[in-house]
Input
Amino acid sequence: MQINPDLFTRFDPLGGTIEGAPQIERRLSDMRGAFADEDAFNAALAQGDPVLYTLAAVAPAHGDGALHYAIAQIAPGRIGAEYYMTKGHYHAWRPAAEVYIGLSGTGFMLLEEEESHESRLLPLTPNAIVYVPGHTAHRTINTGEIPLTYLGIYPAAAGHDYGSIATENFRKILVAVNGEPTLVDR
Ligand SMILES: [Fe+2]
Output
């Protein structure tokens, strides 16, 4: 049976790949300013420039009503006490929401509402679904010992705004305190 590749694909929940979708790498050097402990960041970068996470996105269609989706995988590790994480972003089209589904590993999503700056920390694990409302910056964090892999589904029109959150940064950070993930002020 011939299946339209726009309508069907397969993914690897452990490898973080989608058949036919190119994988984008984000390295430590791409994350300057994201981690709170700048000395720890510079010390880590002096040791090498590891891949912190990968992204594979599929854009089957465009325009009103269409959906895009992506699988991301974050490596385990920390910069100082702060766990490896994504840059985080708003959607360029602020009302656009997103659904995240955990596939493997253990982590969290950190949400920050744009107007109120209210922060929320939600677990992201296999069998967990996180709904990210519009107007909310979102970042994913790996607190486990193995890669954290998840699927995100979002409106095709959402777009990514990395600049606003990079300038303002998240007001909370997730750090290891006695080995336990703990949300503290930046
Ligand atoms: Fe998003």
User: Anything to note?
Assistant: The first strand starts at residue 11 and ends at 12. The pocket of fe (ii) ion is lined by residues 89, 91, 98, 138, 154 (CB under 6 Å). The chain has a mean pLDDT of 95.
